[in-house]
Amino acid sequence: MNAALADIVSALDIELRTREVPDSSVALNGLQIANNGRVTRVATAVDASLASINATAKLGADLLIVHHGLFWGGPQAIVGKQYERLQQLVSNNIAVYSTHIPLDLHPTLGNNVLLAKTFGLIVSAPFAYYKGVNIGVSGISDLQTRELVDRVTQYAISYGGSVRTSIPFVNRVTRRWAICSGMGVSPEALKEARDAGVDTLIVGEGTHHTAVDSAEHDICVVYAGHYATETLGVQALGAWIEQQFGVPWSFLLLPTGL
To answer: How far apart are alpha carbons 33 and 111 in whole angstroms?
Structure first.
């Protein structure tokens, strides 16, 4: 089976609201690199790295879908590793589609809603307000925090990561939780968590001061790894494309350890 690249890109742009959802100024969502116009196999990965590009070429895929694209940080000289990435993409006829916050917040294919489902949590409210949208999710529970941390830990390990918490979680009960993948905890997110009565916040990573601030406000932040918390969305997109277009897909597991 094969499909037109333009048809897949159009469907992704509509489904993900690529042109509507706000994002960081360093993100470039949507089609970043084209190919000859046809897609016979899709690869998905968290990062558009040389490793993921080489793995895509080895797989024989001609479309790579990623969460973190090629062009973080604005204009870049096409030299060194950036040249190697682009040269490999062009020579192997590989298109690249990147989707950052539009994928994080998607109501069915997004990283955060899928993390909640994986951890056995029921979403009842949004979380992590950013530029007019909510990136994360939240809900209520009656769960021993130890049990929740165990679930998150098992998940993180399966993606080459590990888990740390900002405060001890023994003898705690999680009554209200929130999830925001990636760099999910900031001063604004902690304030939002406090205001909402969140006692357990699951994120990918955060800056050092967030551990101090969360401890002082008795919020258990569960740092599950930036990479691990952003794997589910791209996998869901691969399956979605196969369902829509009949094109097979594969996920490239390339943990960063972070």
So the answer is: 23
CB neighbour list of residue 243: distance below 8 Å, 6 or more residues apart: none
Cβ proximity of 229 and 182 under 8 Å: yes
Which residue, chain included where needed, has tokens 């917040």? Answer: 105
CB atoms within 10 A of CB 143: 18
- Give me the residues paired with residue 38 across strands: 4
Distance CA 258, CA 251 (A): 19
Q: Is 174:141 a contact under the CB 8 Å cutoff?
A: yes
Cα 58 from Cα 55, distance rounded (Å): 5
Interior angle at CA 32, CA 29 and CA 38, nearest 5: 120
pLDDT for 14 equals 98
Tokens of 47: 């990062």
Kindly report whether the global pTM for this prediction surpasses the value 0.90. Answer: yes
Is the torsion defined by CA of 74, 226, 86, 246 positive or negative?
A: negative
pLDDT in tens, 122-137: 999 999 999 999 999 9
